Amino acid sequence: MAQIIDGKQIANDIRTELKGKIGKWVQEGHRPPQLTAVLIGSDPASCTYVRNKMKAALEVGIDSITKNLPPETTEEELLQVIQDLNDDNSVDGILVQLPVPSHINERRICNSISCEKDVDGFNEKNVGRLCLDMNTLIPCTPLGVQELLRRAGIDTFGKNAVVVGRSKNVGMPIAMLLHADGRNDTCAMDATVTICHRFTPPAELKKFCKLADIIVTATGVPGIITADMVKPGACIIDVGLTRIVNEATGKAKLVGDVDFEAVREVAGHITPVPGGVGPMTVTMLMKNTYIAARNLSKMRSERK
Questions:
Q1: Catalytic position from the list 6, 34, 92, 97
Q2: What local confidence, expressed as pLDDT, does residue 48 receive?
Q3: Pairing mode of beta strands 252-255, 242-245
Q4: Which of the residues 6, 92, 120, 133 is marked catalytic?
Q5: Which residues in the chain show pLDDT less than 50?
Q6: Known catalytic residue at 53
Q7: Edge-to-edge strands of the sheet including 160-164?
Q8: Is 92 designated active site?
Q9: What is the pTM of this model?
Q10: 155 an active-site residue?
Q11: Angle between helices 277-303 and 7-27 (to 10 degrees)
């Protein structure tokens, strides 16, 4: 039976550590880090995500504010809001809750956020720095996966890892963090990485997964990873999150990409859904905001 990697507990531990660091930072005479979220419209899921982020900020000592914009906000109006936040020295971190309405170009919005305040790590310059294994703000979910592996004591050096998922915000940066040289800025994990995705033929996906010491899956396809695909003792990190409804009862529940009950009989370590990667994503956002605040404070001091 696999050991459960408790993302909720690990996230709580990191938040306690972060609260202490921020408290010390403030005692040294600095203001608390400041995070501003921009929410366009009133999508229930997006509103919940933002509330959870603001709650986490309060918990660790980060000042936060949410700018609520109407759904008819134009792209140019949103760009101006972001530019004002870029220019505001009291703001350390900026996040625009995704997805944005369909009339707004998401890539243009992500690239408009100052790299130094891009706590989601989605600006193409920050993504490029990650790919070059340079110091940067790393996307929160991949950073959370890296931290889960470390704190669970999973050996990655020279191990075979399969990332199932190729999104530019999750799958790709997870693969970069897994395979890159641990001696460089991102403190990566020196694994040998294969990238698959939802359209990899099932027989090929099974072949690759059976060789893997570590599987990180992020497709949003419930049950894509089954027990017969898993090498005994492998570590399974399930980033997938899908809401499904039981047709008989009408009740909804959240599930991951992994057939959890069957796979846990084979794997050595496994993350649950919910309670695995999800809490880590929000916690890494708080970590990035603290890093951004420290970096910006240093930059402002050097300019004086």
A1: 97
A2: 92
A3: antiparallel
A4: 120
A5: none
A6: yes
A7: 3-4, 269-270, 235-238, 214-217, 160-164, 192-196
A8: no
A9: 0.95
A10: no
A11: 20
